[in-house]
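Revision sheet: structure tokens.
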Amino acid sequence: MPHISIKMLKGRTEEQKQRAARALADALVSSLGCSRQHVSVTVEDYTPQQWQEVFEQEITKKQDKLYIRPGYDPKDLL
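Predicted:
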């Protein structure tokens, strides 16, 4: 605890994913005051077609838990 789940379009390198995971873990340690050993991060890649369902499930249907809203229409990715 805490756990971060990164969901994004395919195309980033393994190095980019590692850097993003480390940066987000560092941000949690800094902002929450938790220990680094308690932070976990997953990275999941999706095609633009798959992203439509992810967007619906993770963003559209979770408006009450969404702290930062995206400024794009996922259909524009198709």
